[in-house]
């Protein structure tokens, strides 16, 4: 077992060494002519950041061998001193810095968390260290004609911007790939990528604008193009401010690639070097901005999810209360029936014992008690609702209560998906209708009530509008006074217990809705919009999204 583990570990080390060496040679062959855009530096930092420390020796060997091969090819041109220094792998210079950032600056606080400030600090420190190494290497070739290295500060700037640009181009993409990768979910992630709004905005607006500015700068040979090149940051900044971290990686990479295509191969001019340096600084600022935007979006999403959980708990509480009221109503109906049978039997026994008893008063009291218990059960939960559904309660129970109060009533139920709404929304519909009816009928001039319930679906989420209209007629004031007692009892009959419009609005907000009240000389209208339970935040324990942190 031990030998097998050692064998697998050795194969892994060899694989890392050979794989990195091959990648090093390939990227050098592709990027050898771009003195102001060093992509191979990005490859070095990616491997040092993402691979465990136990593979660093294999990485160092994988770079040392092809690096020495490339250095010895230049022996005749630059001399042995240059070759001796050049045989020192650049990765060896970067390793202490990356170790410091990983262990002390905490680049990765958790598996799915990136400290962007520490990351950019690491990128800048590595760029400075490698630029210093290259500058020292240049002094070792003093026998080379001085004309090639006359502008020594400019050469240092070329090294610094080239290293910094190469790091900014590759490192963020590697981090995104590593942190977003989920085993077994690659296909689903690619499908989600094609429907992502970021890709639409990038390919439809930002990238075409950047490409257009690049073509414009390329066409203007005799005019100064620095302003046009720096203008490429504007669409990149817009995309970053809208979408965050990934947008900064996409737009920043596009800016750096397009700008590198504008400059000829070899040593850039001082003006071009200033432009490249300005773009590198701007792109690094985009990463900080994108990190802050992404972090804010995540906080907003967490707040929204927390609010949704509170709403869900409130709905569950309302449903629990409603179920208890339903059971209490069923029990009260049973008690009312038992009381009626018991009172009838008691009255029959009393007639046998005392034949001449005046049983009318006793019978009237028994019937009244039975009716009161029944009305109490109806106010808790209508029998029509339990037996025939919510439409029966809206058409029959409310109509009977309003008829007893001397009010005309009309109910309209329209729209699709009404019966597919969740039970909590059905409860909210009935209670909102009852509260609205009690509110509009509190005006003594109200002569008729109209209830309109309309259901629908938008973007996969069901909704319902409940509108209660109370029509006012000053000529029916006498009728309102005549039925004044019944109107005062209407709230108790319908089980309405919200005392103000403020409480009614709070009840509507529990269902992600809103409530409006408006009135004029002819009518009073209470309108409420209610939503079914939202889909909420999709929580996948094994697919936690990339989070960013700027300290």
UniProtKB/TrEMBL annotation:
Transmembrane residue ranges: 6-27, 39-61, 81-101, 113-136, 156-177, 198-217, 271-289
Coiled-coil ranges (or none): none
Keywords: Membrane, Transmembrane, Transmembrane helix
Name this protein carries in UniProt: MASE1 protein
UniProt source species: Dyella mobilis
């Amino acid at each position: 077992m031990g030998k097998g583990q050692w064998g697998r570990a050795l194969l892994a080390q060899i694989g890392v060494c050979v794989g990195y060496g091959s990648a090093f040679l390939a990227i050098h062959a592709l990027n050898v002519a771009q003195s102001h855009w060093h992509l191979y530096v990005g490859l070095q930092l990616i491997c040092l950041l993402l691979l465990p420390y136990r593979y660093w020796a294999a990485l160092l060997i994988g770079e040392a061998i092809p690096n020495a091969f490339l250095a010895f090819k230049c022996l005749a041109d630059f001399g042995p001193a240059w070759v001796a220094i050049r045989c020192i792998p650049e990765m060896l210079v970067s390793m202490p810095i990356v170790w410091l950032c990983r262990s002390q600056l905490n680049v990765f606080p958790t598996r799915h968390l990136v400290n962007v400030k520490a990351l950019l600090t690491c990128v800048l420190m590595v760029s400075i260290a490698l630029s210093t190494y290259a500058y020292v290497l240049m002094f070792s070739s003093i026998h080379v004609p001085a004309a090639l290295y006359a502008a020594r500060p400019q050469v240092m700037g070329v090294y610094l911007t080239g290293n910094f640009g190469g790091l900014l181009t590759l490192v963020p993409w590697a981090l995104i790939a590593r942190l977003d990768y989920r085993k077994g979910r690659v296909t689903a992630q690619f499908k989600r990528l094609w429907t992502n709004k970021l890709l639409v905005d990038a390919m439809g607006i930002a990238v075409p604008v950047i490409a257009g500015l690049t073509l414009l700068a390329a066409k203007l040979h005799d005019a100064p193009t620095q302003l046009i090149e720096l203008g490429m940051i504007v669409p990149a900044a817009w995309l970053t401010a809208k979408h965050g971290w990934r947008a900064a990686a996409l737009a920043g990479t596009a800016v750096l690639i397009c700008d590198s295509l504008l400059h000829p191969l070899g040593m850039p001019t001082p003006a071009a070097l200033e432009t490249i340096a300005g773009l590198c600084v701007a792109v690094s600022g985009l990463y900080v901005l994108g990190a802050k935007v992404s972090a804010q979006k995540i906080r907003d999403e967490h707040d929204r999810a927390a609010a949704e959980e509170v709403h869900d708990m409130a709905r569950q509480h309302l449903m629990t209360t409603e179920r208890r009221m339903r059971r209490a109503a069923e029990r009260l109906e049973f008690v009312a029936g038992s009381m009626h049978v018991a009172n009838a039997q008691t009255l029959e026994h009393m007639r046998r014992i005392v034949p001449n008893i005046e049983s009318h008063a006793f019978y009237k009291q028994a019937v009244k008690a039975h009716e009161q218990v029944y009305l109490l059960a109806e106010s808790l939960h209508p029998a029509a609702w339990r037996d025939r559904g919510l439409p029966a309660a809206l058409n029959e129970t409310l109509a009977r209560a309003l008829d007893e109060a001397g009010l005309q009533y009309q109910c309209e139920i329209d729209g699709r998906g009404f019966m597919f709404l969740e039970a909590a929304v059905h409860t909210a519909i009935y209670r909102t209708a009852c509260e609205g009816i009690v509110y509009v009928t509190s005006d003594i001039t109200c002569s008729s009530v109209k209830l309109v319930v309309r259901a629908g679906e938008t973007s996969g989420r069901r909704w319902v509008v409940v509108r209660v209209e109370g029509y006012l007629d000053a000529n029916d004031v006498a009728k309102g006074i005549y039925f004044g007692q019944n109107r005062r009892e209407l709230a108790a009959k319908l089980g309405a217990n919200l005392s103000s419009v403020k409480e009614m609005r709070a009840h509507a907000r529990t269902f992600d809705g809103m409530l409006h009240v408006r009135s004029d000389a002819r009518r009073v209208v209470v309108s409420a919009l209610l939503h079914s339970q939202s889909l909420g935040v999709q929580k996948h324990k094994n697919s936690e999204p990339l989070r960013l942190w700027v300290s």
